[in-house]
Amino acid sequence: MTSLYEDIAEQQADITRLLLQHFHQPLGGDQFVRGVLPAPPTLEAIRIVTGPLDTTTGERTAWELPLRVANSEELYGPHDVLGILRALHTGTHIHSSSRVRTLMDMPLVQVDVTTLKQAPPQPDDDAFLILSTLVAPYTEHAPDPRLRGFLFQGPDRLRLYMDREDDINVIAADVRPSGAVTALLAALPSLLTEEERRGQDDIDPHCTAVVDLTRW
């Protein structure tokens, strides 16, 4: 992989880390983050899935946001992406039909960020930053495997999008949050390397393989 894609992959992981708070804290109204999808390598973008907490796939929307600032070498940071998401969920927005298609049974909206004004930070944002940094201090050494995204697939099914230090191709792992989580997290690094566990998901373009750990 090129260093360019490595930069995109690192940015996707940082955005995922920030947006984790918003599967409990609304972006606006009844809309919460229900997934962060690492876009395929050819796209300098990230896809965020939003919807109500109790939702079916048909009630969710995937938003494709560019990661590169127009006419610039700079990348949008995690707080920029959060500001864009909040803006999308405030007021009324009309999206051209040419920018809407279907992805994994959800409408996918390719967002024109040049037409949006980012929503300002909220008072609790800095408090969250302080507390989360104290609990999980930033380090240049990323976890291995590294979380690149996630998707709530049902009441007790969560897809984790992960990569390894020596291979930034994304592997998806399907897990049950109600299962033996502590044991699963300890075994996850080795489970992801077991070729015999890997399968394919033909409708999910965000990973090169899927490991089903829902019965592990």
Number of E-state strands: 10
Alpha-beta content class: alpha+beta
Oligomer type: single chain
Q: Give the CA-based shape.
A: globular
As residue ranges, the low-confidence spans are none
Measured between the Cα atoms of the first and last residue, the distance is 31 Å
Mean pLDDT across every amino acid position: 89
**N to C succession of SSEs:** HEEEHEEHEEEHEE
Largest sheet data: 10 strands, mixed
CA-atom Rg in angstroms: 17 Å
Question: Which band does the percent of strand residues land in?
Answer: 25-35%
Q: What spatial order of strands do you see in the largest sheet?
A: 4-5-3-2-1-6-7-8-10-9
**What share of residues is helical?**
10-25%
Q: Can you count the helices?
A: 4
How would you describe the overall organization of this protein?
The chain is 24% helix and 28% strand. The chain is an alpha+beta fold. Strands 4-5-3-2-1-6-7-8-10-9 form a 10-stranded mixed beta sheet. A hairpin with a 6-residue loop joins strand 1 and strand 2. Helix 1 crosses helix 2. It is globular, with a radius of gyration of 17 Å. The relative contact order is 0.14.
Give a quick summary of the entry.
With 216 residues, this protein is of the alpha+beta class. Helix content is 24%, strand content 28%. It is built from 4 helices and 10 strands, in the order αβββαββαβββαββ.
What are its keywords?
single chain; 216 residues; alpha+beta; 10-stranded mixed β-sheet; 4 helices; 10 strands
Question: What order do the helices and strands come in, and which of them pair?
Answer:
Layout lengths: L2 H17 L12 E7 L6 E7 L9 E6 L11 H11 L11 E4 L2 E5 L12 H13 L10 E9 L2 E8 L2 E9 L5 H11 L6 E2 L9 E4 L4
Helix pairs in contact: 1-2
